Structures are given as structure tokens and as C-alpha cells.
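Fig. S4 source data, part A: sequence.
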Amino acid sequence: MGIDGIGKPPGGGLPPGGPTDVGQAGKTGKSFSVDGAKGVEGAESVVGAQDESLARLSRGEITLDQYLDESVNSAVAPLQGQLNTEQLQFVKETLREQMVSDPVLVDLVKRATGETPNPG
């Protein structure tokens, strides 16, 4: 009985045909794709809007609460047309509440803006 290849014939663990066949199993010739996937264009527009909001906050043009509201609106923009008005409003309210109550999100807001959001 061999341990770690000791006492086994050379090449005992290789597939037939030698090392050139390694990694060929399961190849179909098709490339990987996800149907219905959107590109990063939507993500880029959300990031751009958040950058602009952050710049406006830094210049004192908007308050932290206005910044958070704009961030929520940017974050849920891709959901418009996917959810009805009531569902979209629920998502906005839930996200906004979490931004001022969840310790991790509060910390992220503080790092981004230098200010701590106030609940309520």
C-alpha cells in the first residue's frame, strides 16, 4: 500500500494522454455569459451621482440629511420601473433608516462625509 504516490507506478494519478489532457474535461467551446445581465453603465451613473452629492456636501451646498436622501435616491434608481411606487418607497425608507441606525453604515457615512448621521 502506497502513501502519497510512494510505491505507485509513475503517472498513476494523471489522466489518459498525459498532462496535456488536464483541465480539458467539461469544455464545450462556449464562452460564459449571463442572460439579461446589464453592463456597469448603471453602476457608473450611481457612483457618479454619489460623487457629485459628496462634492456638494463638502462645499456646504447641501446638508448631511440631503446627502443621505440623494444617496438613497441614487441607490434605488435602478429599481424604478421594477417595483411599484409603494414598494419603492418602502425600500427607500428602509435604506434611509439603516443609514442612520446600522453601526456599519453609520461608520461608512462618517468616513465618507466626516459627519455622523442623526437618527430621526
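Fig. S4 source data, part B ends here. The first helix runs from residue 41 to 58.
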